[in-house]
Structures are given as C-alpha cells and as structure tokens.
Amino acid sequence: MTEKKKIAILGSTGSIGTQALEIAREQKDKIEIEVLTANSNADLLIAQAKEFTPNHVVIADESKYLQVKEALAVHDIKVFAGSKAIADIMEITSADTVLTAMVGYSGLLPTIKAIENKKRIALANKETLVVAGELITQLCAQNRVDLIPVDSEHSAIFQCLVGEDLNAIENIILTASGGPFRGKKRNDLAEVTKAQALKHPNWSMGAKITIDSATLMNKGLEVIEAKWLFGVKGANIKAVVHPQSIIHSMVEFTDGSIKAQMGLPDMKLPIHYAFFFPSRIQTDFKRLSFTEINTLTFEEPDPETFRNLGLAYEAMNKGGNMACILNAANEVAVDAFLNDKIKFLQIAELNERCMNSVSFIAKPTLDDYISTDAETRKVAASFL
Ligand code: NDP
Ligand code: MG
After folding, report:
1. Are 293 and 41 in contact (CB under 8 A)?
2. Whose Cα sits closest to atom 45 in ligand 1?
C-alpha cells in the first residue's frame, strides 16, 4: 500500500476546508490529517479535531483557546492560539501537503512558512498570489516546492498543461459564471442588496469570494493568479463568461488548438486533484451528462459595469505592490458591504481610490507587502 498523504488544512472550518475534510473522510486509507486551523469557529474546529485527530490544532482567535484546549484535553492533540501560531506550526508539523483554505491576506505568512518548510502547497487562497505572486513563485523555485492550484479555473489550466512542458501557450482563457448579476448594467446594480449578491447561481462558497464573484473581482484576482501560476503575460490571459460553469477554463496553444477541462461545478474535484496529483483516484462524484446539460454558452464580460475586472488588469500591468493595494482595499470594501456600510457599486469605487492614493512601490520586499496591506486598510477605512 502507498503511504498516506499527510495533510494540513489551514481554514478547515470554511467552505473549502469542510469539503477537503469530506474527501479525507471518503479516502480514510489514503489521507491522514495532521493540522486543522480556524479563525474563531471553535465549535466546528473541536468537532473536526475529535473526528480526524490531527497532531496540531490552531485557533487564531485567542479568546477561544481555553475552550478548544479543554474540549480536546483527553485527546493527544496539541492546541495553539493566535495568527502567528498558524504560520509557526509549519515548522513543526510532519504534514507533506498544506491546503491553504484561509480567506484573504491572512493566508500569506502561513503559506510562506509552509513553502520555506518544503511543504507541497494545494493553493485555494488565491489572495496570497495576488498580493505577493513574484515572491511566492521565487520561494517555490528556491525551495523546489510544487504549488498545485485548487481554484477550479487554475486546476483546469494546470490539467490542460500536463504533458505540454515543451509547448508554448498562446492564450489562457478563464471562464467566469458571471455571478448573480450577469447581464445587468450599472443602473440596475445601484441598489442591489447583500442577500442578492450572496446568491451565487452555481457555487456555494464563503461570503467573501461570493461577493467577489458578484463584482467580478474574483475573476480579476484569478487573472493575476494565472499570471503567476503559469508565467503568461497579462495580454494573453482572457476571461469569457460561461454561465453553465461546465468548462472550468481553457488553454490555447500556438498551433491554434484549444484544450478545455470540464466537469460539474463541484470544488471537491479540484481539491481531490490537488491532493493526489499526478494520480487520479476513483470517486463516486456525480458524473457530467452532456445530453442533460444540452447547451454551453459564452459571452464577453462587461468591464464597464463590473469595474473590478478592469482594475485587476490595471494592477497586474502596473506590477509592484499595486495588486497588494487592490487586494487590501477590496477586503475592506467587501467587509464594509457585508456590514451595510457601503453600496454594491462603491466596492469598485473604493478599490480605485485606494489604487490612486496608496504609495506605489515598484520592487516590493515582504516587509513592503506587509506595510502596503496595513497602509491600504487605513486609507480605505478613512474613505468609508
Ligand atoms: P470561508 O470564509 O468559507 O472559510 C475561510 C476559512 O478561513 C475558515 O476556516 C475561517 O475560520 C478561516 N479564516 C478566516 N479568516 C481568518 C484569519 N484572519 N485567520 C485565520 N483563519 C481565518 O472561505 P472559502 O472556503 O470560501 O475560501 C477560502 C479560500 O479559498 C479563499 O481564498 C477563496 O478565494 C478560495 N476559493 C474558494 C472557493 C470556494 O468554492 N469556496 C473556490 C476557489 C477558491 P472561521 O470559520 O473560524 O471563520
Ligand atoms: Mg475560481
């Protein structure tokens, strides 16, 4: 029997984290859970730890430490608290693979620590590559660490590129569902509510990425993510709206041939692929029936209405810390929208104001990214 995969799940209580644990439950003889972490959902973290008995558990919210520690006292599980502990655990865990399923900028430092400790990265946390893509790709190369994308579009592209090492890519074509407001114009969006924005047509995901999907920021972040993962120029990364979410993305090669990866919209597929790559493991996931789906359609995205997509291209083309500024502004803006402090269209307005206001650094270091994130959050808060 082959050795079990030893997996750390950062953000185990979220949408990606819980689906990863479903896979661990289904593939018990192939997966061992080494680490589980959460921000503040102590009850779910405790239940998960009791079921999967990892060696280490971390809760970022220090006020929940005693609750988690006491609940797990009879088990042989070490419990830590605080954000820094999530990164520090990478130095002591015997996990070989780390699934980064935390949300936003909080994934950056733990991912860096995981790479430095030679862990294979199953990357869900796209914001890490948006904030510091150049640094992360350099660190992966230096440490000979593989970064396997979990984001469905990037998993699709990754799968299309298997066996194509010697061939040049002409274009990457990222598909986008279009979100709940596909086809709407700016006037239609002025008064949309949080509940409407949180209703994604095809995917059930955490709140932040669901809002990002509604504003098309998610596609913008994914364009930047693709640039770093696949080393393709911005001009060669296109987005196309494909409302059925069956084609997860495509690669066009220099001979004009296009490869697409398809499947039903289910994040367990790309998580599974990242865990077991280069193998494919038998599953009983629901199969795609072409005759049931019947029609696949495609549309141009509308960057005038969904301004965030254009802003992401601008940030990517500018380089330096600009995508870090956009990411931090967007995290503040989405949080403000979810807390009824701003309206839907103000999310992109706030992002653009921050891109025009925060100090630009052409060649940022890690410390620069950290200070850019902090500065942008302050500036964004002052605009609210
Ligand atoms: P969720 O909001 O559902 O889950 C986030 C997880 O991270 C939770 O475990 C949460 O803990 C934890 N967390 C949040 N903030 C912090 C913090 N500051 N410090 C430590 N832990 C924290 O998000 P998703 O699962 O939807 O997304 C996770 C990542 O995967 C995102 O980067 C997203 O873009 C990406 N992704 C998600 C997809 C999806 O289908 N959901 C698809 C493609 C990519 P707690 O529960 O305690 O709050
Ligand atoms: Mg995606």
Report:
1. no
2. 39
Query: Rounded to whole angstroms, how far apart are CA atoms 318 and 324?
Result: 11
Q: pLDDT tens digits, residue range 200-233?
A: 888 889 999 999 999 999 999 999 999 999 999 9
Q: What is the pLDDT of residues 301-327, one digit of tens each?
A: 998 899 999 999 999 999 999 999 999
What pTM was estimated for this model as a whole? Answer: 0.97
Core vs surface per residue 72-99: b (16+ CB within 10 A) or e: beeeebebbbebebbbbbbeebebbbbb
Q: Is 130 in the pocket of ligand 1 (CB under 6 A)?
A: no
Q: What is the dihedral of CA 297, 316, 105, 251, to 10 degrees?
A: 40
Distance 79 CA to ligand 2 centre (A): 32
Q: Is the CB of 17 under 6 A from ligand 1?
A: yes
Q: Using alpha carbons only, what angle is made at residue 62 by residues 59 and 64, rounded to the nearest 5 degrees?
A: 70
